[in-house]
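Thanks for the sequence, V.! I ran Conjugative transposon TraK protein right away. Repeating your input here for the record:
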Amino acid sequence: MLTHLKNIDTSFRHIRLFSYVLIVANALTCCYVVYSCQQSIRLMQSKVLVIANSKLFQATAASREAFLPIEIKDHVETFHFNFYTLAPDELVIKKNVTKALYLADISAKEEYDNLKESGYYSSIVSANISQTIEPDSVSINLDTTPYQFTYFGKIKIVRSSSILIRSLITTGTIRITTPSDNNVHGMLIEKWRIIDNKDLSIQKR
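Predicted structure:
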């Protein structure tokens, strides 16, 4: 009889221990499932799908600082492209320069006014001159604010009788502002000035 009771007591202890282990295991499993679900949700929320040119791309959320050099480089190159891409058409010149002036402060407007007063744009129209710019590089200093940049490029001036290549080196600073339709990066070029703009080569046509 005592042996039988001992067996029952031992079995009960085993069952109770097994139940405790099972409860703990279930609790750990539930915690793991909840944690995994939360991680999956965070991962999905950090992904954005973008459609461009009928193609689907995945964008991953990240801090702006990680891509700041790329944004500054594109902003600076876009400004110089619009400011220096000119055609023998007053409407094209006005359209491109207007786009550029949205990206810079009064220092760019003053340069535009100087060129306009000197008859630069009038001569482009009257002589049927086409002007394009090719960027070489953009040096950016992120150690201080406002951020400093130096732009290196070449201007190609096509006349009816010749093709002139000029160097272009400019410098300035970048101030972070608010993005808009006319300024998608939300940046403003300040204290812009030309430090080199000399003839490199000329080719007869």
